[in-house]
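Following up on my earlier message about D-ribose. Here are the inputs again, as you asked, copied directly from the submission form:
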Amino acid sequence: MRIGIASDHGGFLLKEQVKSFLLAEGHTVHDCGTDSENPVDYPPIIQELARMVAQNTVDRGVAFCGSGLGASMVANKVPGVRCALCSEPYSAVLSRQHNNANVLALGGRLIGKDMAAEILRVWLTTEFEGGRHQRRVDQIHALDNERGIRRES
Ligand code: RB5
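Thanks, got it. Here's what our run produced:
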């Protein structure tokens, strides 16, 4: 898969560890930064990643900040993005089966690299179930139309 990753300083170390994991698994990784633990604002960095997902430049995105909260909030502002903040694997499975999540948010100050790898492993291999869940996902994106925002994908 083509996977985009992005973090602020709070998520930087976990991003680097996840990047190694993804490359070892054979994925193509596009890194939107940041490139150190020096403080940076997360919104522009995460926005770049979310737009890449919405425009289908990458297949999936993984967004990091200290808690994962800010990253998920930013990503979910971009039409076409469905970002799930997960701290354990079962939420990651459900985010794929029921919500067709295309961005995963992880908190660099909350979870370790082994937990992140397990979350990633199930998130990247679990399929969307469609059916009644497709209708609900469509209803989520109808909110974009209501606000006059055009989806990019
Ligand atoms: C940065 O200190 C921190 O606020 C950020 O990484 C993130 O957790 C925001 O939601």
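One observation from looking it over: Residues 9 and 75 are 17 Å apart (CA to CA). Hope that helps, and feel free to reply on this thread.
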